[in-house]
C-alpha cells in the first residue's frame, strides 16, 4: 500500500483529502505544519507528499528546501497543493523540486487524486 | 556749443582749415609780391638795383615763412578742433561699446555734441539699459532653473548634443554615489559606463540622435547598494530642441522606491486576503464536488441540481478572486512576464482547440482566416493566450445559439492584426465608452451571463498595451461585435 503524507494546516481540507485518498486505498498520514511535516517525511518516508505552502512556522517552500538538502528524502515526490498561485510562487515551487503545483481552488479532489495516481504510477 | 549737424561741421572745418587759410595766404603772397614789383619799378635805376635785389628778396622770404607758419598753425588748430568735435565722441562710443561687450552693463556714454553722435550715444545708452534688463532677466531665470534643478527630488542630468555632461544635480550625484558631482561635468556619457549603470543612460550613449522622449514605464533597480536595499527608478530621456535642431538631452531619474514598497505591502495584503478567501472556497468546492458525485451518499436529482448551482457560484468566487489578483498584478506592472517569439496562428489554434467543448455546447462555429505566411510576434505567451481566451470566450458567450465567430489574422512588416468577429448580442451604443474599464458589464450581457467579473476586457487591454499593441472594437446591438488588437511583429523575418 502506497504511503501519502498530507501537510495541510486547514482542518477541513486536510480531512477531505484524507478521506478521499483513504477511499482510494492509500495509506494516508497527516501533518498540520511544516515542522511536523518534515519530521514525518523523514520518519515515514512516504511515496508522495501533498504539501501546502502557507503553513504556521516553517512554510511549504522551506519544507521543500530542507527536503531537497536531505539526501535520504530528496527523491520523494511532492505535489504542492496551495492557493498561492502567482507565477513567481509556482516557479519557486517547481524550482525547489516540486513535481507539480496545483491551485486548490482551481481543482476538484477528483482531479487532485488523478494527479496523485499519475505520479505514483 | 551751437547745434550743428556733422555734415555742417565738416563743411565749416574744411572751410576754416583749408579754404580760409588758402585765401589769406594767397592774399598775403600777392600783396607782398605786388609791393616788391612796385618798388622794383620805381627804384629801377637806383642804388638798390645796383646793390642787387637781395634785401628785397630777404624781406619776401621772411614774409613767406610767416605766412606759411601761420597757415600751419591754423591747420593744426583746426585739426585739434576737428578731433575734439568729431573724433573724440566716436572714440568715446567705441570705448563704451567695448566695455559693454566685456559684460559691463553699467557703462553709459555721455555726449553733448548736439549732433547725430549725441543721439547715437543716447540710443546706445538705452540699448545698454535694455540689454542689462534682458541679461538680468536671463540670469534670474537661470538662477531659478538652477535652483529648481539642484533642489529637485528627482535626479536630473543635462547633456549637450555631443552627449557631454553639462549639469548634474545633487540628487543625481547621490543616486550615482558621486561626492562632488561638479567634478565630472564635461565628461562624455560614454565615459560613465561604470558609474552610470542605468541601462537608459548607456542607451543614450550607444544610440545616435534621439528625437523623441523615451519614457519607459519599466523601472530599474539598483542592487549594488552596500546596505542591500533596492532602489527603483523610472527614468526618462528628453531631447531638447532649439529651432528644430537638437541641442541636448535631459535625463530624469524618478525614485519610486517608496511607491514600490507600498505596492509590495498592498500586493502582499491582497495576496494574503485572496489566499484566505480561497481556502474556505476550496473546502466548499471539494465538498460540493464530492456530494455531486455521490461521495457523501445518494442525492436526489433536485438536490444534485441545487448542489451544481452552488458549485457554479463557487467557481464564480474563484474567478473573481483570480481576476482581482490579476488586476493587482497589472497595476503593479508585473503582470506580463518574459517574452518569447511565438506564432500567432499556432496560439490561436491551440486556444480554439482548448475551447472546443464549450463551442460545441453553445453550438457556435469558429472559423480562423489566416495568411499563408506565419505571423511571428515577440510576446509573453501566457498573457497573450489569456487575452485571446478572453476575447474568444466573450465572442462565444455573448453569441446567439448556432452563431458564428470568425477570427481573422493578418500581418505586414510592422504589425499583426487579430480580429474576433461575432454574430452576438453586441454592445449598446451608450455603453461602448466604458467597455474597457474595470468592473464594467453591459446591461444586455448581464441578462445572458450574470457571473462575469467585468475585469476581462480591462485585463486584455492592459496585456495588449504592455506588448506595445493597440486594441479596439466596433459593435452594433443585436448584430454583433468585432474586437481587434494589433501587436508589433518580429521584424527580421
Model description:
The complex is a heterodimer of chains A (121) and B (493). Chain A is α/β, with parallel strands linked by helices. Chain A has a single domain (3-120), classed as Rossmann fold. Chain A is 45% helix and 19% strand. Chain A has helices at residues 11-23, 34-44, 60-69, 87-95, 109-120; strands at residues 3-7, 27-31, 48-51, 78-82, 100-103. In chain A, strands 2-1-3-4-5 form a 5-stranded parallel beta sheet, with helices on both faces. In chain A, strand 1 (3-7), helix 1 and strand 2 (27-31) form a beta-alpha-beta unit. In chain A, helix 2 runs parallel beside helix 3. The longest helix of chain A is centred in the first third of the chain and has 13 residues, at 11-23. Chain A is globular and about 30 Å long. Chain B has 493 residues and is α+β, with helices and mostly antiparallel strands. Chain B has 4 domains: 6-116; 152-255, 2-Layer Sandwich (Beta-Lactamase); 260-332, Helix Hairpins, CATH 1.10.287; 340-488, 2-Layer Sandwich (Heat Shock Protein 90), CATH 3.30.565. Chain B is built from 13 helices and 12 strands. In chain B, the strands form 3 sheets. In chain B, strands 2-1-5-4-3 form a 5-stranded antiparallel beta sheet, sandwiched between helices. In chain B, a hairpin with a 2-residue loop joins strand 4 and strand 5.
Condensed summary:
Chain A is an alpha/beta fold. Chain A has helices spanning 11-23, 34-44, 60-69, 87-95, 109-120, and strands at residues 3-7, 27-31, 48-51, 78-82, 100-103. Chain A has a single domain (3-120), classed as 3-Layer(aba) Sandwich (Rossmann fold).
The CATH architecture of the largest domain in chain B can be named as: 2-Layer Sandwich
Structural class of chain A comes to: alpha/beta
Q: Output the CATH homologous superfamily of chain A.
A: Response regulator
Following the backbone from N to C, one meets helices and strands of chain A in this order, namely: EHEHEHEHEH
**What's the main sheet of chain B like?**
5 strands, antiparallel
Binned, the helix content of chain B reads 40-55%
**Which term fits the overall shape of chain B?**
rod-shaped
The rounded distance between the terminal residues' Cα atoms of chain A is 13 Å
Poorly predicted regions of chain A: none
Distance N to C terminus of chain B: 90 Å
Biggest sheet of chain A: strands, sense, closure?
Answer: 5 strands, parallel
Number of domains of chain B: 4
What count of structural domains of chain A? 1
What structural category characterises the helix and strand content of chain B? Answer: alpha+beta
- The largest sheet of chain A has its strands arranged as 2-1-3-4-5
User: What oligomeric state do these chains adopt?
Assistant: heterodimer
